Amino acid sequence: MITIKGLKKTFTTKSNTIIAVDDINLNINKGEIFGVIGYSGAGKSTFIRLINRLEQPTDGNITIDGQEITDLNQKELRLSRQEIGMIFQHFNLLWSRTVRDNISLPLEIAGVPRVERLERVEELIKLVGLSGREDAYPSELSGGQKQRVGIARALANNPKVLLCDEATSALDPETTDSILKLLIDINKELGLTIILITHEMHVIRKICHRVAVMENGRVVEQGDVLDVFLHPKQQVTKKFVEQVMGDKEQDDAYEFLTTSYTTGKNIRLHFIGETTNQALISRVAKEFDVEINILQGKITQTQKGAYGTLVVNIDGENNELARAIEFIKSTSVEVEVAPNA
Ligand SMILES: Nc1ncnc2c1ncn2[C@@H]1O[C@H](COP(=O)(O)OP(=O)(O)OP(=O)(O)O)[C@@H](O)[C@H]1O
Predict the structure, then answer these.
(1) What global pTM score does this model have?
(2) Residue with the nearest Cα to atom 26 of ligand 1?
(3) 76 CB contacts (<8 Å, ≥6 apart)?
(4) Which atom of ligand 1 has the smallest separation from the CA of 13?
(5) Which residue numbers delimit the ABC transporter domain (predicted)?
(6) Is 42 in the pocket of ligand 1 (CB under 6 A)?
(7) 133 SS3 class
(8) Which long-range contacts (CB under 8 A, 24 or more apart) does 9-13 make?
(9) Which atom of ligand 1 is nearest to the CA of 214?
């Protein structure tokens, strides 16, 4: 759906030249939710603004659904922007217009006749869950409701792509969840391709299928969300994964646990994707003559399935213990046996 090749943006100021986006190459599939994560200054905002040419690229190409965005003149660009919706951290609503009139604005600009416009606005209000608030002004809405207006407005012209620029960063955790859920519903219902930028890994975990990690203007790592969570390669990615899983803390506790349980075997199980749904522990307890103690665990859900770790102590007669561990290894759960304390 979207192909980005050699994308580059430099800003020249009086004192120096800043390379904000540096040779980005990405392919984003139709209907996928693609996340870009990075710390402040990594170049995320510049990157997303290049996609709808709110910024002009210094070099490189962007193709959306076969159309070369980087080649368009101003008139073509205006038309093409109707196919690329965008939502913002601070909503960018018109304060003097009601909810209905904010959502209607892009339809007015596109020259949609009044009756059709009113119908479409009604549809959108229902879609984003704002029924009953049509006549309110932005100042009378909560942050979550304002972002719902932003989403409805962005979807008004049936775009092919929705760009989300830190769309939940100004919201509290509960409201963030409800907006992320709305984005997931819209992605599923309309098959809409969504690109979002964020500095929060839990946003990536909750809604993205794939993720790219940005640092100093470059994409330093990308892949399926589950893969990146399980096997982060770059230091910056490891830090983001820790934001969600708190790995460092868990490792300290793991060391403590494995030195406290001195009989049997202490093992760490890494559950990936669908395997978390298997009743693994109860099967082992039933089929083998062993005792299993769950010492610690954390399982979390991503759009591509669940993943997490469980630390257990298995105790029993040596042979039976070995058989039980072999059995666990034969499933798709990754097993790590701690050396005996
Ligand atoms: N208009 C501009 N003129 C000069 N430098 C700019 C401009 N816009 C961005 N930059 C610089 O480009 C780099 C990337 O900025 P960008 O805003 O894209 O990063 P970011 O990852 O989105 O960070 P944040 O989340 O803090 O906005 C920064 O060093 C920034 O100072």
Answers:
(1) 0.83
(2) 40
(3) none
(4) 4
(5) 2-241
(6) yes
(7) coil
(8) 9/43, 9/46, 9/47, 9/50, 9/55, 9/56, 9/57, 9/58, 10/58
(9) 21
ipTM over 0.90: yes
CA-closest candidate to residue 259, choices 199, 340, 330: 340
pLDDT per residue over 14-56, tens digit each?
899 999 999 999 999 999 999 999 999 999 999 999 998 999 9
Instruction: Tell me how long the chain is.
Output: 341
Domain termination site, one of 225, 244, 263? 244
Count CB neighbours of 141 within 10 A.
18
* pLDDT tens digits, 281-293: 888 989 999 999 8
Q: Is 48 in the pocket of ligand 1 (CB under 6 A)?
A: no
Q: Which of 244, 259, 292 lies at the terminal end of a domain, its last residue?
A: 244
Task: Name the β-bridge partners of 42.
Answer: none
Q: How many domains, in total, are found in the chain? A: 2
256 C-beta closer than 6 A to ligand 1: no
d(CA 119, CA 207): 30
CA pair distance 189, 98, nearest whole angstrom: 26
CA dihedral of 222, 35, 48, 66, whole degrees rounded to 10: 80
Place of tokens 């960018």: 92
Same domain, 317 and 232: no
Q: Which of 233, 224, 218, 305 is nearest to 39 (CA)?
A: 218
Examine the domain organization and report whether 24 and 107 are in the same domain: yes
- Ligand 1 in contact with 133 (CB < 6 A)? no
Pocket probe for ligand 1: among 13, 14, 18, 47, the residue whose CB has the most ligand atoms within 8 Å is 18
